[in-house]
Amino acid sequence: MKRNHPSLHRTSVLALCLLSLSGLFRPVAAQSSTPQPHVYEIHINSEINQTTQIYLSRGLGEAQSLGADAVLLHLNTYGGLLESADSMRTAILYSPIPVYVFIDNNAASAGALISLACKKIYMRRGASIGAATVVDGSGAELPDKYQSYMRSLMRSTAEAHGKDTLVRGQDTTFLWKRNPQIAEAMVDDRIAIPNLIDSGKTLTFTAEEALTWKYCDGIAESVEEVVTAYLGYPEYTLTGYRPSWLDSLRGFLLNPVLQSILILLIVGGIYFELQTPGVGFPLIASVIAAILYFSPLYVEGLAANWEILIFVLGIILVVLEIFVIPGFGVAGIGGMVLIVAGFVLALLNNMTFHFEGVSGAEVGGAFATVCAGMILGMASVFWLSNRIGARGLFRQVALNADLQDSVSAPSLAGLTGKEGVAATVLRPSGKVMIDGEWYDGISESGFVEKGAAVRAVRFENAQVYVEKV
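Above: the chain's sequence. Below: its structure in token form.
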């Protein structure tokens, strides 16, 4: 019998092993495939406001963290706040992930601005886009300066998508992908475009009209049709943004009307606390209102530490002016300026002391919100000052016992018309001295220095109301 050579035996074994391994790996290689495209969907089906702004911001951030290939904005809105729409427009234009929009019925006013910022616009048959004139809460058109700003926003958003290059023989033509004049006509009824719209009418497109004038890139009846037919993803993974209750709460607290009310509570609470001894309900209400005002702004990255510090420093200066420094001078005025500055700066999306990315509309809106709250707060302070008690809003909790039957009431009532001096500074409450006796006094002439002559004008709730002589 012939013996096999050892080297030949080893070669055969090695060949068998390689064949076995190739058989094992072949099915795995066959089963491996390219990952499916990931589409991230964000629903905006309500008024454009701070809440929807948070939804979009959170959704874009989550889409980026998940590595999504595209973001699809599922939109159905009649419009909303211009400031929120402008912020959403900017976020879409500068998103590293392409953002597409599917208009499911309506994209009016602020919704039209948001749609124009998206890379592609798809509409359901029967949907509409346009009517972007700026109006107030009652539906009346605002002055032209607001319309001018909206026109520029619409025009610049359309221009941001650039131009197409058409080469015909020796001629090269550059055409806007989205005609800026059409975008402007959605705001201004004075613009006339041949074969499209006459002056005196604000432009609103149907789906078919938008498709004809390149303000729609396709008509679809569902998100699935948009993704498969237009985005070109026959197989895909769809993830949707699910807002949390905390997002909704932050959006509610960022509402300008509520922010004005919180400012009112902060100002009124501080004033009434300074008029009463100890720590009471006004201070607690003021602190809670300040927390509710600054907390959502801090979480959103709008209010920085130094902006909150400016507000606190303003409060300290006002308190020093009232209790330490006589009169009302630099400290008081400086404190009020810092308080207003802290409120306004907290509402602006600025980076430290740089305001390049802050628009005039954002500054005006923030200042209007703060001024409304401050004015309402001061008006409420003056209105409530003489009404807390039996006639006022707090008649159920305020002490309003009738002291006319007490022993000292007749003598106090007889002080009306008598003159005396301010025994302490009246801010506006303090002590007055009449006929050698000390009484609790309240000035109806504003701030009264210690030692100034005063006259009693009436007696109420065991206090003497005086005026400066």
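The CA atoms of residues 298 and 372 lie 21 Å apart.
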